[in-house]
Amino acid sequence: MATKKPARKAAPSLDVKALSAELGATVKEGKVVQTRGAYYLQLGAKKLPIPVGTAVRAADLAKLVGQSVPVAVAGSSIISIGRNGPRCYMILCYKPAPDVFGQINDAVRATVLQQLAQAGKIEAGLAQQITEAKAAVQLLG
Amino acid sequence: MLSFEQIVLEVTEACPNACLHCYNYWRDDRAPVRSSGTLTRNEIRAIIRSIKADSRLKHVGISGGEPLLRRDLPGIASDLIDEGLGVLVITSGASLTEAVLSRFPRETAFEMTLFSSDAALHDRVAGRTGAFARLVKAALLVTGRGHPLAISVVANRLNAQRTGDALRLGLALGGNAFLFNRMNLTRAMLPHAGELAPTAEQLSVALDQAEEFARECRTTVSVSVPIPPCVVDLTRYRHLFFGWCARGGVDSYYTVGYNGLLRPCNHSSQILGDLRTHSFRELVRSRRTRSFWRPVPSECKQCELPDAHLCRGGCPAAADECYGTRLRRDPVVDVILRPAAVPVARKGPPS
What we know:
The complex is a heterodimer of chains A (141) and B (351).
Chain A: H1 16-23, E1 26-35, E2 38-43, E3 46-49, H2 58-64, E4 68-74, E5 77-81, E6 91-92, E7 95-96, H3 106-118, H4 124-140
Antiparallel strand pairs in A: 1-2, 1-4, 2-3, 4-5, 6-7
Helix pairs in contact in A: 3-4
Chain B: E1 6-10, H1 41-54, E2 59-63, H2 73-82, E3 86-91, H3 98-102, E4 109-113, H4 119-126, H5 131-144, E5 149-155, H6 163-172, E6 177-182, H7 193-196, H8 200-216, E7 221-223, E8 240-242, E9 253-256, E10 261-263, E11 273-274, H9 280-284, H10 287-293, H11 298-301, H12 308-311, H13 316-323, H14 331-337
Parallel strand pairs in B: 1-2, 1-9, 2-3, 3-4, 4-5, 5-6, 7-8
Antiparallel strand pairs in B: 9-10, 10-11
Helix pairs in contact in B: 1-2, 6-8
C-alpha cells in the first residue's frame, strides 16, 4: 500500500518588509555579484561590498550570485539580502535579546541530565534533585 | 527618537559573590545596597520613563552587583513590565527564595551565570562556598514557575575546558537560552591575565564544545563578549552566534548605574552624565559620548580577517579600562597573542 508522503515543511522565511519596517530600512531590488573572490551588491549604479564572516557566510552568498534579490538597506548598511537570509540575532553582552529564548523538549533535557550523571560529570544527588524538581512541576501541571 | 531598544540597569553595586574575573570597575570598592546615592524605585521608574520617551526602548536588563539584594526588585520589575518593557534579571541566584520569586511578574526572564557543572569549581570561580547549590536551587525555582531562563557560561583559564558540561547542566536545569562568554579584562585584572584569561587553545576547545552542545541539543549559543578573529577562527562555527560591540549603534546598550549615572556599557567606568539632571537624549548625543565610540585602533584598521568589519578592535571598553585609551585593541589580543607585552602581577589573583 502506498503511503502518503508527508508534506515538506516550509523553511522559515524572513519577512523582509516587516524587518525593514521594524528597523527603519527600505527594501530595494539588488543583484549579488562576485568579483575577484569578493562579494558585492549591485544596487542600481551603486556597488556595495558585502562583508563576509560569521554573520554573512560566503557559501550562502555564492548561492545568490547573479540573482535579483530583495535587499533591505539603511543608508550604506545592508541589513538583509534575499528572502530566506538568516536574521542576525541581537546579542547583548550578558543579556540575550528575547528572540534568543527557544523551546527545548523535556525529553532532551532528561537525556542530557542522564548523560551527565552517567559520565560522572555531576553528582548523583544533583541529578536526583533536578529530576525530583522537574517531576514536582509536572505533577502540579 | 533615538533608535536604541535596550539598556542595562544596575540597581546595586553590592554582591555576595567575589568572582575571580569580575569585570566591574567597582569590584574592590562597592557601594552598599542602601547608600545615599541609590536610586529609589520611583526614581528608577521616572528615569526609565524618560529614556522610553527619548528612544524605542523595549528591553531592560536588570543587573548589578547582585540585583536580588534589593528587596524592592520585584516591584521594580513590575513597574518596568507595566511600562510595556521586557525585563531580564541577571543574577547569581543567591538569595532567590520561593517567596521572593512569587512577587515577580510571570513575564520576568532571568539570566544566571554558571561557571561549571562541578560544584567545587563553580564555587572557586564565584569566590563563595555554596554558590553552586544556591544557583541550582534558584534555577529550578525559576523554571518551575515557568519563567524564561538564560544560562550564561563565563570562561576563564580554570573552567574553559569544561564549557560543554556547564551548558548541558544549564539545559538540564531548564535553561532555554544559552550564552558563552570569555572573561573580559579590566585594569585590576590585567596583571593577573596570564593566570586567569583562557589561552587561544582553551577558547577554541570551549567554542568547539559549545558548538557540539548547540548541534546536539538543537539550540543556539550566543557568544556576546567579542572574540577577535585574530585570536580564534570563528568561521567554522555554524551554531554559535557571535556578538560584537555595537559602538554606539542601534544595538548599543547604555548602562544606568545604581546612582543614575549613565555609562556607555556595563564594562566601562566612563561616566557620560547624570540621568537625574539630564535627559537620555542629551547625554547620548553629547560630544563626549560620540567621541567615546569613534576610535578604531590603528593596528586593526587594515585587518582583512573575516568579521574584521564587525570586530573593529574587539571591546573598546576593555582597552579603555586596561590601557586608558580606546586607540589600542582589546587587551585580550595581547594577553593571548603577545603575553610578554602584558604587565605581570607579583601577587596572586585578587580573591
